[in-house]
Amino acid sequence: MTPQKPRILTGDTPTGRLHLGHWVGSVENRVALQDEYDCSFLIANMHAFTTRADKPGEIRESTIEIVKDWLACGIDPERSNIVLQSEIPAIVELSWYFAMLIPFNRVMRNPTLKTEIDAKGLGDHYSFGFPLYAVGQCADILVFRPELVPVGEDQVAHIEMTREVARKFNQVYCNVDPQTEDADSVSAGGLFPIPVAKVGRIARLPGTDGVHKMSKSLGNAIYLTDTPKQVKKKMGQIFTGRQTMDEPGDITNSLFQYVRAFIKDESRVKELEQAYSKGDNIGDGHIKVEVAAAISELLAPIQERRARFEGKGGDDLIVDVIREGIRKSNPVAEETLELAKQAMKLDFAPRTISFS
Ligand code: TRP
Predict the structure, then answer these.
(1) From atom 5 of ligand 1, which residue's Cα is the shortest distance away?
(2) What CATH number does domain 7-204+313-343 carry, 3.40.50.620, 2.60.120.200, 3.40.50.10490, 4.10.375.10?
(3) What distance in angstroms lies between residue 137's CA and the mean position of ligand 1's atoms?
């Protein structure tokens, strides 16, 4: 089962529909990489339980919605693997072993966990499973032995931890010399490649509040399913603090981050930047309308593809895609687990798993 193409693994926690921040941060990259790489896209539905254990119905719904969004964006289940985390038992098993390779305090220092604890107001009453998800994420990734992990900037800390776990496993159980370069890890006998994070072209898209990162929980998101009217209205809310049209504008403000993210014509972007920074009689309102139109142009084909899954029977089509993904991805995951257990001298009883 040697892969012909280098592998990619990435994923999303199902928290609701996807927004533009997901698109520019990661999803756009995934769609583009499908030909060159053997791609697996994971729905981290177990992670959703770390903060919403009492909402299984919502999590199931979000799971289906996210797959609709992926397919709408152009992720092609014929070429790529759709991986439902909760149905890949190898992930859970590896998480347990990986938890022993990383100090507890190292996990608790993970800056992404800290940011999440603050942003979600988890205080000191989060579940035991909450910090554990960071170890689980190492297993999500390594079970597919990928070279590349396309993610938003906020996930880089998790990928760093994953790299540490992979190095440690290779050293402890595969006798890889600690001095070995990351790129040589596998040729030196390691089971796991040391995966590299690939951040999308816009690392952090501000939300329509113009301040915080775009996020569902902050209510500042433009969704991939928003109509042109909704997009226009939300764009109108972006606050720049600029008073008049002849006031020189700051082209590093949130509005211009949208200009650069969504207006495709480079020369038009330059023109707008020049006029705005000079205070050349160009109003924020005008620019917002232009950006809104560009966004809706980007979203039109996505929404057209999504329509197929929105009617009656749409959810069933998605469940079929998820099932097929479970069948396709488990053999790879099981192979990794078997190799890991061999390395750990735990190869007592080889097994295969099957689905009805
Ligand atoms: N933690 C990621 C997020 O919230 C989702 C995720 C889970 C993930 N497992 C992953 C991302 C593995 C990349 C690779 O967006």
Answers:
(1) 12
(2) 3.40.50.620
(3) 6
